[in-house]
Design a protein that fits this description.
By secondary structure, the protein is an alpha/beta fold. Helices cover about 45% and strands about 15% of the residues.
């Protein structure tokens, strides 16, 4: 069964979007997120998690139960194989990491674009979840063309050649960019840059260039109040919170509160 890509529909209507991250390799998580009714999608941060193809099926099914389309963030080394595996499982969006050059944008595009004469992609007919019941290709091409294409802008060399990368991203139909301050600082050999005021200039350059080329900049935040600054410079797409951090903060709050109470009892 091919499900509609509701995230694509929101982007096509030029509406703002809200996502959240999850790293736990448990199908309960996307179902729980979907059941809240508060998010347009959830991003499975596979780059930092442990998974296999069967798990991708379970995650996508669970998202389906909660009416929640899923995005997958992939490690660059195996991106083509795992991007196609995720689409075959029923994921509706791919976030590619470590884009450095315009040629890298081409490689990401080929991984998920249909293998048709006018597209030049590598994605052929995969008899996975969208075609479990038959060999029919009804809706298959349309579904592939609806996949949301996102790239990380997180390397110093990328920012130094930002116009060439953005020009190619626009030509290849990139929908979203995502700024990555940690990898950016790492790639410059300036580990402390991420948490410093100086990082904002680079971040705002990436946001401005994305908007200039007609590509929506998505920003990751950890708290609602962090959104205001980005709204003021044109950002309308956010991914807020990480399950590990949310759970840890809740446990810290519970444990600290009860521990203090017991100390004064």
């Amino acid at each position: 069964m091919i499900l509609p890509n509701t995230l694509r529909e929101k982007l096509d209507r030029d509406e703002p979007t809200i996502g959240t991250h999850f790293l736990f390799a448990d199908a309960d998580i996307p179902e729980l997120i979907g059941d809240t009714g508060m998010f347009d999608y959830a991003e499975y941060v596979a780059e930092y998690s442990a998974f296999d193809m069967r798990l991708l099926y379970h995650l996508a099914r669970a998202g389906q139960c909660g009416g929640l389309p899923l995005m997958i963030k992939l490690d660059q080394e195996g991106q083509s194989f795992w991007a196609q595996a995720a689409l075959g499982a029923g994921f509706k969006s791919v976030l590619f990491t470590d884009v450095r050059t315009a040629a890298d944008v081409d490689a990401c595009h080929r991984a998920i674009a249909p293998d048709t004469p006018n597209t030049g992609g590598l994605m052929g007919v995969k008899l996975r979840r969208p075609a479990l019941g038959s060999y029919s290709m009804d809706g298959y091409l349309e579904d592939l063309e609806s996949i949301v294409f996102a790239i990380m802008i997180e390397k110093n060399v990328t920012v130094e050649d930002i116009d060439a990368v953005m020009e190619r991203a626009k030509a290849r139909g990139v929908d979203l960019t995502q700024w990555g301050p940690a990898d950016f600082s790492f790639s410059r050999g300036q580990m402390r840059l991420m948490g410093s005021p100086e990082i904002r200039g680079f971040e705002e350059q990436v946001i401005a260039k994305s908007l200039e080329y007609g590509i929506r900049p998505r920003i990751e935040i950890g708290a609602v109040e962090q959104a205001k600054r980005y709204l003021d410079i044109g950002v309308r797409d956010f991914c807020i919170g990480w399950d590990r951090m949310i759970v840890r903060a809740a446990w810290m709050n519970l444990g600290e509160g009860l521990k203090k109470l017991l100390e004064t009892a």
